[in-house]
Amino acid sequence: MTSYLIFIVTTAGIYGLLTLSLNLIWGSAGMVNLGLVGFFAVGAYASALLTTMGGLPIWAGLLGSIVIGAAVGVLATSATLRLRGDYLAITTLGFAEVVRLVALNERWLTNGSDGVPGIPRPFFAELGSQNFPIFYLLLVLAILAVTFLGMRRLDTAPFGRVLKAIREDEELAGFAGKRVVRFKMIAFAISAALAGLAGGLYGHFQSYISPDHFQPLLTIYIFLAVTAGGVGRPFGGVAGAFVVIAFLEGTRFLAELIPGISLAQAASVREMMVGLALVLVLQFRPQGILPEKRMTAPHIKTAEVKT
Length: 307
Hints:
Layout: H1 2-28, H2 36-52, H3 58-77, H4 85-105, H5 107-110, E1 116-117, H6 124-156, H7 158-168, H8 170-175, H9 180-206, E2 208-209, H10 217-229, H11 234-257, H12 263-284
Antiparallel strand pairs: 1-2
Helix pairs in contact: 1-6, 1-9, 1-10, 1-11, 2-3, 2-4, 2-9, 3-9, 7-9, 10-11, 10-12, 11-12
């Protein structure tokens, strides 16, 4: 039971990094990124290949997942940042599917559907199979805490305020002299870098990755986490990640209690529960558990002009 709890909390921590990634690009800048799982996969494969085929140390692999994730994010979005709303969402969704198909078919690089096995785990030989999960849990939580503090600082910095101005009215932000495309590009690069880091941590945690690990449903989970926690608020997204993981694991047991259904049907029931939960959150609590604190302009009293 303890090992199971350590596993789900570690997974929640990795999901927390993904919520910070999505919260920056969607909650702060207002850009819908349905290709989050694609950047997650890029980071996972980057770190896995650098440490297995390239023979680099794990820290270099994780650094590579950040750099390559950011670079791919810039390349993937350089031609799409002028798109808005549904068009941007569809484009990023297509990007995620392209990444999955490349991982599935380019066997010379990714080993195709067989995946990449033997991804090294940090200090696994020294710690052993009993102590490694605890160490990795603490490592993930430490990285999540540092990243959260950085994103909260960024959220209240002038850069974060410009992103929120772009979210509210892109044209007005441009009229105010802000380079909208440049700010969007930087935000997308940071978001992709965080998703890449989460992917790298996931790969070294699992020690094996394959295209099946990066299904579009993962993006829905992260959207549910950010929506439930509070769009536009970093702490809300992180809290939502832990709530969603608890909900997903709870539905696993609930689905198994339904009599007369197979394991495949139980998995379908879980997905239905996730979809229903997203609909209910959007219907009854669209602002999330911890809604964003919006600053209001001070009321200025104007003096009466006497004639």
